[in-house]
Specification:
267 residues; alpha/beta; 6-stranded mixed β-sheet; 4-stranded antiparallel β-sheet; 12 helices; 10 strands
Length: 267
């Protein structure tokens, strides 16, 4: 995927959510998009998958530009290229559908498999995310948060996409469950060669899952590069501020607050 100069405004242009954002994700690669609330990272994710239409800029998959808001055939084709996994699967999953039904719905739309083939593929997808027959028959309310997110990932994989966009996909989970989901995503990436775009405010999560990172502030990309390099030797003051805000041994929240105030005063 290649993103070129995306711009998105609201309120008749008065509020700039995304401003001249560009980056690339190679086939099978992984990119982290980092920033605080209001940085524009979620809007960027929605622009990539076509849930929002940019004021200007372009998104390419395999060199072909996508056209948001096009017909049903175009939307289905995009769904087989890129899928979005939301932060809260309880909101994105239909509460009336079992896990198996949620996946089967996507297979009926996109796979062309007959009933027997869909059952076989559904079992494969659930096994791929570590779920079995009990979870397959359960409604979302009968599953844990981690299990619901696994169902959401399995449903996204049902179209066999080239790219998964994950918007704060582990933010609502306990730390131990976060680690399980991150390990699962790494395994899925190795096995399927699917590329990942991981949107997060959590630098440690991005360090774990992303080869490269872009840092966003007030809608713009302020720093980019290999994740290990950017997080080890950040160049932009905002990236340094984000890193200093991560609690650790000897962490001083008062110093972080002062640093934030000083940084904002320079803008």
């Amino acid at each position: 995927m290649r993103v070129e100069a995306l711009r998105k405004t609201y309120d008749h242009g008065k509020v700039v959510a995304v401003d001249d954002v560009s980056f690339e994700v190679p086939a099978g690669g992984s990119l982290g998009i980092v920033g605080e609330s209001g940085s524009g990272k979620t809007t960027t994710a929605r622009l990539i998958v076509g849930l929002e239409q940019a004021d200007s800029g372009r998104v390419f998959f395999d060199g072909e530009e996508t056209v948001p808001g096009a017909g049903r055939r175009s939307r289905r084709r995009r769904a087989r290229i890129v899928q979005l996994v939301f932060q809260d699967p309880y909101q994105s999953l239909d509460p009336r559908q079992t896990a198996a039904d949620a996946i089967d719905e996507i297979l009926r739309l996109h796979s062309g498999l007959d009933g027997t083939g869909r059952v076989r593929r559904r079992v494969e997808l659930l096994e791929q995310v570590g779920l079995g027959t009990r979870e397959a028959a359960a409604l979302p309310r009968e599953l844990s948060g981690g299990q619901r997110q696994r169902v959401a990932i399995a449903r996204a994989l049902a179209t066999e996409p080239r790219l998964l966009v994950l918007d704060e996909a582990v933010a609502a989970l306990d730390v131990s469950i976060q680690a399980q989901i991150l390990n699962l995503l790494a395994q899925i990436r190795r096995n399927t060669k699917v590329a990942l775009v991981f949107v997060s405010h959590d630098l440690e999560v991005v360090r774990w899952v992303a080869d490269e990172v872009v840092v966003m502030f007030r809608g713009a990309v302020v720093e980019r590069g290999r994740t290990a390099e950017v997080l080890h030797e950040p160049q932009h003051p905002y990236t340094k501020l984000l890193l200093s805000s991560v609690p650790r041994l000897g962490w001083d929240p008062a110093h972080v607050s002062t640093s934030r105030r000083d940084f904002l005063a320079t803008l």
